[in-house]
Design brief:
Elements: H1 4-37, E1 48-53, E2 76-80, H2 87-119, H3 126-160, E3 167-169, H4 176-205
């Protein structure tokens, strides 16, 4: 029967594999961005998400079992790709890639540190509470930054894109489960901090 250390070691190995795969993915993505910027490969390699709304006169969706009138299509999302993207477009994509990768690798780094402490038997170490708090704030911050970036990008696209038959919309939406996950991690960090304080008091008592 596998003990806690065995599971911790297996989880640490899995996180380490994810770490190196993530680093490799960033390197490959950076190489592809350079190739796109140099027009060494075909266009369309960069994905550009956008939100739009169709005019009601362009479609007719109805169901007598669901409603008495035609349905209205709400704001939808799609992806644009342009052949031979400009260097400035590629540069923005590179900046977004670097920021997202740095955020993700930071979270993995904190997680690897926690698992290393658990393997050493230091479950309620103060640095584990700090690492867990950093992960919680990083998860919440990443989601909020992503939402603001999508919204700001939508506002920009409304001014530079020429679209016929669709209405471009700037959309601000937050993934609530991700925010809740970050809050749960912050609560766990507080519990770890209390546990570390109790462990220190017990060590002083002994």
């Amino acid at each position: 029967m596998a003990g806690p250390r065995d599971w911790t070691g297996a989880l640490a190995l899995a996180v380490a594999v994810v770490w190196w795969l993530s680093v490799a993915a960033v390197v490959i993505a950076a190489a592809l961005l350079i190739a796109v910027a140099a027009h060494a490969v075909g266009g369309g390699a960069l994905g550009l998400d956008f939100y739009f709304q169709l005019p009601a006169s362009a479609y007719h969706v109805s169901s007598s079992r669901l409603g008495g009138s035609a349905a209205q299509i709400a704001v939808s999302s799609g992806q644009l790709s342009f052949a031979d993207p400009r260097a400035s477009f590629v540069l923005v994509g590179a900046i977004v890639l670097v920021m997202a990768a740095a955020w993700w690798l930071f979270i993995l780094h904190q997680l690897r540190g926690m698992l290393a402490s658990l393997q050493d038997g230091q479950t309620f170490a103060r640095r584990n509470a700090l690492r867990l708090r950093r992960i919680g704030f990083a998860v919440i911050g990443f989601e909020l930054a992503h939402s603001v970036a999508v919204w700001g990008g939508g506002l920009y696209l409304e001014h530079i894109l020429v679209a016929r038959g669709v209405g471009l919309r700037a959309h601000f939406g937050v993934n609530v489960p991700v925010i809740l996950l970050g809050l749960v991690l912050l609560v766990l960090a507080a519990a770890f901090r209390v546990g570390s304080e109790l462990a220190d008091e017990q060590a002083l008592t002994v």
